[in-house]
Amino acid sequence: MYGLDRRKVLILKHLIDRNDYLSSEALASVIGASSRTVREDIKLLDLFLHNFGAGITSRAGFGYAIECFDFDEYWTFVQVFREKYQDESLLPPVNSERVAYILGALLRQDYVRSADLMDRMFVSQATLSADLCQVRSILLPYHLELGHRPGAGLFLQGEERHKRILLSDYLYADEDDSSDDTPTPDSRLDNREIREKLAEGCRRTGIHVGMNSFNEISDLVIASSIRGRTGHPIGLPRMILDEARALEDYGILGELLAGIWPEASEEELAGLVLYFLTRRVYSVDEPFPRGVDGGYFAQISRIQARAEAWAGDGVLSDRQITAILPLVLKCTRLRVRYGYEYRNVPKAYAKQRSSVYDYAALIGRSVCQEWGISLSDGELAYLANELRSPLTQAIRTRLYPKQRVCIVSRWGKNGGLLYAQRLQDYYHSYLESVCLKEFYEVQPQGNPFDILLTDIPKVKFSVDIPVFQIKYGLSYREGKHLRSLFSQKKDRCSIFCARFSPELFFRGEEAGSPAEFIHRLGSRMGELLQLPELEKHFCEQDCFAGASRGNGVAICHSFSPICTETRIAVATLRRPMAWGESMVSLVFLVALGRDEQPLYSSVSSLAALLTDVELVGGLLRAKNFSALLDLIRQGFDRGE
Fold first, then answer.
1. pLDDT exceeds 60 at position 176
2. Residue among 540, 541, 616 nearest 576 (CA)
């Protein structure tokens, strides 16, 4: 975007999200670069932002922050920037321009010679080899490989339908070319007309797809027409063609797509219909698809029951999850079956701030055992996003017990009505009941309440429950303290900090690969806690769901309780290590205990704390365990 490489985009993303001063040391620690490199990049970003009504200012002892002098222009830029790079896993590779050029050459030509690529891009053999490694990693989610034929050159190896999906994703690699008015290269189809007909067809048939999927389908129609006109027929296997014809709504969607692309053959239309059906969204209020028999629901019940047995905290047995899970997994199985998994789902965002992703991974693990299919990181992130609302509600119910609040006002019961209304408006998720009382009705003992809320001085009450005094009409600051009281933040902070110990703090560790590091550190942790084969639990979680959480952090944990009390190990790395799509400098190993309610509450607290880049930088610079624990307490106090 705008010619920025991955490192500059990441620096700019942290500065925008932080909305405050951020030191170059903290940025360097989470990005995996030196402070000097960060400072040089910030100078260039300052010039870059001047084109969008802003700049980067510095303050000694504090760091760097974005200064805005044209709010409207800057805010427009921020919205576009966040839409494109909302997630660390979607950032461009360091050598993005060369990689895009190589992919374009492979899609336009049957064979591409390495010597021609070096001549056109003015790079050496070593640089080209590094770029080709990046190309191979990009091709992997598309079920494609980079092949080589002696005397001919490099070529894309895989099914034609997957090559078309790759082309559709790279049709508009530059945002400036992504408008509906832009003519599509090498295509006789009009992008705007396709989207209008597609939208009209979805309205008429009542079939729902999300906005991103809608754009994917439109781009795939254009990519299919381009590949078909250049002598690359889809060649859909007969078995897949027969299975597609048997799917529900095949006829309706085939007629819809034939109206958009009249020249398409039956095989071409079948491939598009199949992709369309894998992107369909079933809402809870619509009838479940025809043709789904009781055997499917029995399988879903087993998947849910197995995942709940592993968790053992009641979260996954929630009624809303039971209602939504069959709708979500129907298309999930179809996508994995035909290799149409979600690719551009924000994975890092799904892993941050809550434990929803961890529960989704638990369901994915159960799906693997039931159907024998493995869900990719993108599919797990999509599953987490689909289940976010019911899972969050179920987790919150178990994490924050409902409170019975008694309100006593100096102006009597009617005077407390305003406080009661504000509680219901802003804190309803924490409340079981709200009761209004006069001051003389409150008893010293035996009150059926959890908290007493009053604008009368606390010394006037002698009761066996906590008393919260309102001095400024339940102001913002008082509301923040009240939320901490409702969520039992102080107690949870003490419990959370007790899970760390000095012997589980490893500073300045050397690391080769993530698997080797997990095995080595997990073995040491297992010896200290007398938990044999602890490292196997961490390796399983990392292989299945990926431990990298963004911001230079990785959190490995067991899928289910393996000890009496949860214990957390912390390791800082001497130098950053490549971990999936991110560079990692700080690693946490969490051995979940049977005292966790809900199961992943410690993992959730860690993930939420570590979204603070300044805190991550401080943890990496911590000289001893005492300094580490102080930083964690400070992060908790700032709002875990």
1. no
2. 616
Helix ranges, 487-562 (H):
489-497, 514-529, 534-545
Q: Which helix (H) or strand (E) holds 436?
A: strand 431-437
Q: Nearest 5°: phi and psi at 498?
A: -70, -15
Of 93, 15, 175, the C-alpha closest to 614 is 15
Region 573-595: what's the mean pLDDT?
89
Own/partner contacts of 320-323, CB < 8 Å, gap of 24 or more, are 320/389, 320/390, 320/393, 320/394, 321/387, 321/390, 321/391, 321/394, 323/284
The owner of tokens 């200290």 is 528
Q: In the chain, what is the straight-line distance between the N-terminal and C-terminal CA atoms, in Å?
A: 32
What residue has token string 């700019």? 12
- Give the dihedral of Cα atoms 359, 375, 328, 361; nearest 10 deg: 0
Which residues are bridge partners to 209 per DSSP? 280
| Separation between Cα atoms, residue 485 and residue 234, nearest integer Å | 61
Q: Which two tokens stand for residue 381?
A: 């992130």
Tokens of 212: 């991103």
Cα maximum dimension of the chain: 96
- Tell me which DSSP letter residue 375 carries: -
For residue 361, is pLDDT > 80? yes
Token readout for 511 is 């690391």
**What is the DSSP secondary structure assignment for residue 467, as one 8-state letter?**
E
Does residue 179 carry a pLDDT above 50?
no
How many whole angstroms separate alpha carbon 398 and alpha carbon 601?
Answer: 10
- pLDDT for res 499: 94
Q: Which tokens in the block code for residue 417?
A: 């009505």
Give the residue from 442, 436, 448 showing the smallest Cα distance to 460.
442
Residue entry with tokens 């369901």: 363
Q: For the whole model, what pTM was predicted?
A: 0.82
Distance between CA 555 and CA 549 in Å, rounded?
7
**pLDDT at residue 474 greater than cutoff 50:** yes
Whole-angstrom distance, CA of residue 351 vs CA of residue 358: 8
Element spanning 233, H or E = none
Q: Which residue has the tokens 């309610």?
A: 597
Those residues whose C-beta lies under 8 Å from the C-beta of residue 406, and which sit 6 or more positions away, are: 435, 436, 437, 442, 447, 449, 451, 452, 453
Whether pLDDT at 536 is above 60: yes
Nearest to 86 by CA among 8, 173, 9: 9
Q: What is the pLDDT of residues 397-443, one digit of tens each?
A: 887 778 899 999 998 888 889 888 888 888 887 888 999 999 888 88
Dist CA 389 CA 393 (whole Å): 6
What DSSP assignment string belongs to 114-126? HHHHHHHHT--HH
